[in-house]
Amino acid sequence: MKLENDLLLRALTKQKTERTPVWVMRQAGRYLPEYREVRKKAGDFMTMAKNPEMVCEVTLQPLRRFPLDAVIIFSDILTIPDAMGMGLYFVTGEGPKFKKPISTAEDVDNLPEIDVNHDLKYVMDGISLTSQTLNRKVPLLGFCGSPWTLMTYMVEGGSSKNFSKAKSFLLNQPQASHKLLQKITDASINYLNAQIASGANAVQVFDSWGGALSPEMYRVFSMDYMQKIVQGVKKENPETPVILFSKGVQYNLKNLANTGADCLGVDWTTDLSLARELTQDKVALQGNMDPCVLYAKDSVIEEEVKKVIDSFGEGNGHVFNLGHGMQPDMQPEKLEVLVNAVRKFSEK
Amino acid sequence: MKLENDLLLRALTKQKTERTPVWVMRQAGRYLPEYREVRKKAGDFMTMAKNPEMVCEVTLQPLRRFPLDAVIIFSDILTIPDAMGMGLYFVTGEGPKFKKPISTAEDVDNLPEIDVNHDLKYVMDGISLTSQTLNRKVPLLGFCGSPWTLMTYMVEGGSSKNFSKAKSFLLNQPQASHKLLQKITDASINYLNAQIASGANAVQVFDSWGGALSPEMYRVFSMDYMQKIVQGVKKENPETPVILFSKGVQYNLKNLANTGADCLGVDWTTDLSLARELTQDKVALQGNMDPCVLYAKDSVIEEEVKKVIDSFGEGNGHVFNLGHGMQPDMQPEKLEVLVNAVRKFSEK
Fold first, then answer.
1. CATH code at B175?
2. Which range of residues forms the domain containing residue B266?
3. What is the mean pLDDT of each run of 10 residues along chain B (348 residues)?
4. Which of A39, A82, A218, A276 is catalytic?
5. Active-site residue, selected from the candidate residues A19, A36, A76, A122
6. Cβ(B119)–Cβ(B197) under 8 Å?
7. What ipTM goes with this model?
8. What is the count of structural domains for chain A?
9. CA–CA dist A127, A142 (Å, integer)
């Protein structure tokens, strides 16, 4: 059965579209009062993330307000290490934490293999329910974190400013690091394939901290593992579009275009015209407005949306998005201005 | 009178050197126990920064331990807004704060012009005393923050994660923003010229947050004002080398090379070979090892130092530095390994 609105899937595969599809990262989030209601009812973040009804509800909330071209399943990139028994919890204002961080090669060896359909059943249930409820109105996106990004949290024990522990681990214990990254990669491939089997129409890999590495370390410790994920997904689901989003890795866009991914996410520090040049138009591009523009006046938001659309220029393969997620203190009305502006300026 | 060791000044102006000169950002800092002693005696950060004897002492401390090719005056980039009456103070673990942040165009109009020789006399006294004590052993660097970087602290009222207030100010009040940036620029030009008159042999402009802006906004709101600073310094001190260091602005290196600066700081996310290509060898380059390498084993530090030196390749105009400052939890012995490795691998 065909999707009612398949603009996103066509753009991701560089087919012609009547206008530029738009969704934004963290569109299901704290900036929406109706999200905060559910969050309050759940008590804590993981209780909400593990409840399929709540997941379905918050995933669909932004679509009720704005004419978006996709929804992304509400979840967290740290579900995999949590399923590996690391004890994920959230401290308000401090972000995610792990009870048992990785600090030795032995810790890596002791990490269990996970069965995604069992250990992460709640994610698949959330996707199935959302997919049914959505009833093929727009595509549903699944996602996971990149192996390197997950590794930073797993080794640091939570968020970090300069990733000193995770980088020391890479530098001092490269073998154990590769073992850890491979374990995460194997789990991620199964995880994304299970998400697709449950109803996800496309998937995105979030590499939030790739840009903290030098170009060489990025290729060895982050990009290569994302490429393995792309291959593992494509092997089982050749038709499902895969998006890779690494923040701040401008010069590796050229290499990322050869990973087999259909689309690359681009942040606002790289012009889309330059990104097209670097990727030689081999892939679709997603992005790239600075989310801070949503703090501006409506007229400024419209101008900035137009600039992004113009910077991509003629041709197929652009998905409008922010270069980073929505912030909790943003006004929902501003996102409406953005979505309408994308429609207005990209209509052909 | 000639400097005993003028390697840095020669490298900054792309003259031949027997080996690559090395200094590192925040080399006078909390990772040194003797620095923590002085800091403890002072009580708080600004008391130390305003005491010329203490400034001289901590500036010279790293030179007693390591054979460095330069020292940088101990101070803070926020001395200018402090002198403008914004009320700078430091909260342990939270960084700098301002009692009276800028939030309106009127606040900008009300910012007073400063007389750097009077209002920032303590900086000049610190430089004079350090210069005398140093007795021309190695060059003494002066510095200031970039106008955009100072603006972020002045508008946010302190550190920030995503600069939402400062960016909103740029987007919603571009005229007031330009007025503010020009006021900071005027003060910075006088400030650097006064530092040179007091004994600084070269100066660096720190643009810590340029990389948070889109390429276009970077050029309009950050780079153009740094260029004015370069021009203002060169007008009065044509022989004094000027270094610009913007973090994470790879694609603007090409434009930065045309600002008139002698040298550009490069962080570890850009290979030096690429930086040379982008800047067409018009300027010297300073950098660019990831400071996190200093958490690694000695042998890894040596390998990484060699990689940086090799990535610059043949030719003149390289100053070895880290891509960011020393961290408080680093071991002083590791910096010694780095400095010795630079000497060993770059000796011609």
1. 3.20.20.210
2. 7-346
3. 94 97 97 98 94 98 98 98 95 89 98 98 98 98 98 96 95 98 98 98 97 95 98 98 93 95 96 96 97 97 98 97 96 98 94
4. A39
5. A76
6. no
7. 0.93
8. 1
9. 8
